[in-house]
C-alpha cells in the first residue's frame, strides 16, 4: 500500500500544472491553477487568494506564464493524438474493418505514443508580479488642522 501511495504522489507531483507565487503585499505563498491562468492570459491580473489584492504580472511573470501555457498546449495535442488513436482503432474494429490483431496493434501504438511523446514532469516555475501601487494622494501626507 505504501508503494501505491508513493507512486500516486509522484504522479500528482509530476503532472501539477499550477504555478506558485508570493504575493508582494501580504507575502503569502499561493498557487495559480488552470482557471486562474486563463484569467491571467486574458486580463493580465488576478486577485491574491489571501489578501484579495489585485496583482498584475511583470515581464518575467509574463514569460513564465507563456512558457507554462505552451507546455500545456503541447500536452493537449499529445493527449488528443492518443485519444484519437484509441477511438479510431476501436471504431474500425467494431465496424468490422480491422480484425482483433489490428485492435491490439492500434492500442499498442496508442500506448507507445502516450509513454514516449508526452512530457512526464513540469518544472517548478514561480510567477512574479509588480509591487502593489501606493495611492500617491495619501502617501506621506498628514492632515493639518488650523485653529
Could you explain the architecture of this structure?
There is one protein chain. The chain has 147 residues and is mainly alpha-helical. It has one domain. 52% of the residues lie in helices and 11% in strands. It has four helices and five strands; from the N terminus they run αββαββααβ. The strands form two sheets. Strands 2-1-5 form a three-stranded mixed sheet. α3 runs antiparallel to α4. The longest helix has 36 residues. The radius of gyration is 24 Å and the shape is elongated. The relative contact order is 0.15. Keywords: Membrane, Transmembrane, Transmembrane helix.
Write the layout of secondary structure elements.
Elements: H1 2-14, E1 19-22, E2 29-32, H2 34-43, E3 45-47, E4 54-56, H3 59-94, H4 100-117, E5 126-127
Parallel strand pairs: 1-5
Antiparallel strand pairs: 1-2, 3-4
Helix pairs in contact: 3-4
Q: Helical amount among residues, as a percent range?
A: 40-55%
Query: Rg to the nearest angstrom?
Result: 24 Å
Question: Helix tally?
Answer: 4
Distance between the termini: 78 Å
Supply the helix-strand structural class.
mainly alpha
Order of helices and strands: HEEHEEHHE
Quick one: overall form?
elongated
Annotation, overall tally of beta strands: 5
Low-confidence parts = 1-12, 135-142
Strand order of the largest sheet: 2-1-5
Q: Work out the strand percent.
A: 5-15%
The overall average pLDDT, rounded, is 77
Let me know the largest β-sheet. Answer: 3 strands, mixed
Counted up, domains total 1
Transmembrane segments: 96-116
Keywords: Membrane, Transmembrane, Transmembrane helix
